Structures are given as C-alpha cells and as structure tokens.
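Human: Here is a favour to ask of a fellow structure person. Comparing notes only helps if you start from a blank page. Give me a protein, with the fold worked out from its sequence. Please set it down just below, with no commentary around it:

Assistant:
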Amino acid sequence: MIQTAVILSTGDELTTGKVWSLRQACELGDVIIGTGGLGPTADDLTTELVAEFLGRKLTMNHAVADALKKRFAARAIAWTPNNLKQACFPDAAIIIPNPVGTAPGFRVAVSQGKSLIWLSGVPQEMITMFNETVMAWITTERGKDSEIFSCTFKIHGLTESKLDDLVRPVDLGSQDKLSFRAHYPDLTLRLTASGGKAQEKDFVERCEQIRRVLGSHIYAEGDVTLEERVGRLLLEKDQTLALAESCTGGLISHRITRIAGSSAYYYGGAVTYSNEAKVKFLGVKPATLEKYGAVSEQTALEMSAGIKEKTGASVGLSVTGIAGPSGGSPEKPVGTVWLSIARHQSHEARLCQFHGERERIILGTSQAALNWLRLALLD
C-alpha cells in the first residue's frame, strides 16, 4: 500500500522554520502532498523552500511563463513582473497544470521511490489539480502493483467515539484501514484496502458489515451531501417539499436549492423570523404564540402545517429555535430547537438541543432537520 503524507499550509505559514514538516513527511510517506504558497506575493515561499530543502536550483519554465502572460492578456488583467514567480520550479520538477487558477503545481522526486507533490492552496484549484492530474498519476504509476479499494460512509446521529465503538467488531483484513473524519456537522467513516482482484470480494463483504452495524445512521456513501440524498429520495418517492424556517434563516432552503434540478421537488419556503411573520404567512395562531411561545412544539406543528397547506407541497418541514447567544432561559436554553414534519399521513414534532456558538447551532439544526426528513421519506 502507498503511504501518503499530507502537508496543509498557506504561504505565510511555510517558512524556513517549517522545514522539519517536510523532513517528517518525507520519512513517513512515499507520496508527500502539500498545498499553498504558490502565488506571486512576497510571502508565497513554498517553491523556494522546497528547492532549498532538496538542494536544487530554481529554474524558470518558459512555457508556463508564456501561458501566464497570455492568460493575463486574454482577461485584460494588468501584468506585473512578480507573476513570474509562478513559473519558477525546482530543477527536474514536473509541472501540474492548474486549469482553474494561475499558479501551476509541481511534482518532484525526493529520493528513490518517494515523490513530493505541491498544489494550489485554493480549494477549488487544489481539487481540480488533484482529480485531473495527481490521482491519474497515482493510479497509473504508483498503483501498478496493487489495486486500492475504498468506500466512504456519511454518518449522522453518532459521536466519533460511539462510531469507533460500533465498528470495532468489523473483521478487518491485514490490508484494511478504517479512518474517521469529524467535520461538523458531518461525520465520515472511510474503509480503504489494497490488493489484487482477489481482495475485492472480501472488501465488499466488509462494507456490508459496516452497513449492517450502522444502519440508518449512514445517510449516504461517497461524495454525496445530505441535501443531495434528500433530493433523490423526494424524486424517488414522487414527493414535494416546502420549508418554514425561523432560526435557520433560510439555510435549509439554500442547501436544498444549491442542488441542480431541485425545482422538480422543492416548491419554496418562508423565512418567518418574527412572530408576526409566522401569523401572517403561515397561519400560526396568535394564541399559540402567546401561550407556548415561538420556540415550542405547538408552534412548530402549526408552522409545518401552514407551509404545507399554503404551498400544496407533499411535505411541510419547519424549524424554530434559539440560536443565541441571547434569548435563552432556564426552561428554554440557547440551542433549544423544535422541528416538525407535516405529511398527508402524519404530523409530528421533535425537540433537539444543540450546543456551541450561534453558527454551529444553526448549521446543526439544518443537518438534523434534513436527516429527519430523510428518515421520514425512507419510512
């Protein structure tokens, strides 16, 4: 199996004092991937530092320099000489094209069997460079002797420690590796294995073991977001959705509509932040708000029923809560959120309690609401 070490950095962080990170990465990995610091400014020091680390001179690649000048001219952007920094690379480096941005990356041999790859630090550029050039090189050049199998599971409703505990019984082979990534509100589990075609059957069975152990906590596999999964289910079930949002301020609607083709299943929604808006646009009863408050089971139920009725959607989903940092009370602390789903055959509400800063509560609420909708559609 290829051992990969990753260095994540920005230009101003990668100084001579960070050379140790390069040395450590080269000791740990066969393929070392770094990002950032390839731009034209004085604090973009990556290329110079890598050249110094490898004991090589910097050489200008005239083809890259010419391409940069043509790109600037075509876009009517003023050219400044410091842009030529982006055309200088350590001797014997192989250029990695950057179709999205101006600064190319490079790949250079460190020692026998070890390669150092450096990509742009801009996420969109880095991903494109990796997918179009680096991954192809890894699979064709570095993966000749073994095939790599991997499966990524997207998970909701478990802590990282609980997930680790649940998958411990999975019978891993000697070439299998489980890795965890907590990136709120997502939790990702990845199974990776290497070997020939003979290992593929065992890998498939281990994936099945994970599915059986985690069940409905897995909301998707691969590079699929929760909103994409919900959208596919709405299409499969021939259902339409309308949203009534309070504390999330339209975030759920944004997540739904960022998916191409969502107009096929999303009718629209209302951001009813004030009590008056809840009454006027959703038909929430003033008596309900007065007796129970805006953040309550009763209000959430009336919000979901109201948006469903007014739009004619198959499903009405509502959220109302206290995102903070103020507005909480002993009975309803910051992070208290009520969700509700109204459908033809059912009308329910659910209480959630979130912790942390305002943006974390809002994001967590949107994830919990979409995941509950996913489960409701699967039922």
Summary: The domain at 4-142 is CATH 3.40.980.10 (Molybdenum Cofactor Biosythetic Enzyme; Chain A). The chain has three domains: 4-142, 147-221, 226-378. The CA atoms of residues 180 and 189 lie 5 Å apart. The radius of gyration is 26 Å.
